[in-house]
Amino acid sequence: MDVAIGLPSAVPGTRGEQLVEWARRAEARGFSSLGTIDRLVYDNYEPLTALAAAAAVTERIGLCTSVLLAPLRVNPAELAKQALSVNALSGGRLTLGLGLGARDDDYEVSGVSLSGRGARLDATLERIVELWDKGEVGPTVSGRPGLVVGGHADASYARAARFADGWVASGTGPDQYAAGAAKAREAWAQAGRDGEPRTLALAYFSLGESAEQDARASLGDYYAWLGDEVAQMIVDGAAKDPDTVKHTLAAYEAAGCDELILFPSSNDPTQVDLLADAANL
After folding, report:
1. Could you report the per-residue pLDDT of 65-74, keeping only the tens digit for each?
2. For the whole prediction, is pTM greater than 0.90?
3. How much of the chain is in helix, strand and coil states, percent to nearest 5?
4. What count of other Cβ atoms lies within 10 Å of the Cβ of residue 16?
5. Residue 11 — φ and ψ, nearest 5°?
6. Does the N-terminal peptide bond of residue 11 adopt cis geometry, omega within 30 degrees of 0?
7. Is 280 exposed, middle or buried (0-12, 13-18, 19+ CB in 10 A)?
8. Taking all residues of the chain, what is their mean pLDDT, rounded to a whole number?
9. How far is CA 152 from CA 119, 157, 166, 178, 201, in A?
10. How confident is the model at residue 246 (pLDDT cuts 50, 70, 90)?
11. Which CATH architecture has domain 2-278?
12. What single-letter DSSP state applies at residue 194?
């Protein structure tokens, strides 16, 4: 299993120099990819912009939007070109992960209705793939990015099988990942696709002396919209010591995950080294 790390692009107050130093360290320590998560009404960086900054200071490490909320981007051709641009600038390292999102305020500020977002995601995926296949937008120097679809509804697995290279699970734990991955493989076979889908998953970590405090401040705030109980469950589920990191990696690997992306609760670049040490990278 590949071990990836999320950028601190959704940790409030992250500065540009912290983000690019994080990317440099992540590549030097051997992580497979840098991930981003997406919100609009929040103190976070836009995912493709953050990955473009990371691409400029790295040469090898993969780049993954895990996931970008596609229904909020109302022009699929523009999104297709943005993804091609980051892929070309990085030398072919981008995986575009797309999902739905469910926050009312993100949709309201976009002037987009929350209802019908599944159908809009289908249309966006279809149009992006069509544009990439026909080469109607560029740059095409590095080919098309990878493409994965997130979500745990039945329609999400069908989308991944119809349009994408694989499926990405939310940060709900290895058991839920395993159940979702089985559905993704089933949908893949039903669609007549060869082989098996690439499967990815998200988890959270917070290491060092202020691990608990950082997790409460960052994850607790980011997921507050889900309610105090759910937000606290996410805080409690973050890996806060090296042994828990090792257990988390082992559990996802045993469940058959191809790549696990561990997202931080702090923007301190030393977190990269703490996680790399815990993961024996």
Report:
1. 999 999 999 9
2. yes
3. 50, 15, 35
4. 10
5. -90, 115
6. no
7. exposed
8. 97
9. 16, 7, 13, 11, 12
10. very high
11. Alpha-Beta Barrel (3.20)
12. S
Query: How far is CA 38 from each of CA 64, 73, 122, 169, 237, rounded to the nearest angstrom?
Result: 11, 12, 19, 14, 20
Q: How far apart are CA 112 and CA 24, in angstroms?
A: 37
Q: How far is CA 116 from CA 112, 130, 172, 246, in A?
A: 10, 21, 25, 40
Q: H-type helices in 164-281, by residue range?
A: 174-190, 211-222, 228-237, 242-254, 270-278
Q: Which amino acid belongs to residue 154? A: D
Confidence of residue 190 (pLDDT cuts 50, 70, 90): very high
Count the Cβ atoms, other than its own, within 10 Å of residue 125.
21
Report helix, strand or coil for 202.
strand
* 219 three-state secondary structure: helix
What are the extents of the domains in the chain?
2-278
Q: What does the alpha-carbon distance between residue 97 and residue 159 come to, in Å, rounded to a whole number?
A: 12
Q: Tally the residues of the chain.
A: 281
Alpha carbon distance 266, 257 (integer Å): 25
Q: Is 114 exposed, middle or buried (0-12, 13-18, 19+ CB in 10 A)?
A: middle
Question: What pLDDT score was predicted for residue 197?
Answer: 98
Select from 248, 203, 276 the least CA-distant residue to 26: 276
Rounded to 5°, angle at Cα 128 from 127 and 129: 95
Q: C-alpha dihedral over 226, 227, 228, 233, to 10 degrees?
A: -40
Cα angle 69, 74, 79; round to 5: 70
The amino acid sitting at 39 is: R
Distance CA 34, CA 64 (A): 6
Could you tell me if 252 and 201 are in contact, meaning their C-beta atoms sit under 8 angstroms apart? yes
Average pLDDT over residues 93-105: 96
For residue 106, the one-letter residue type is D
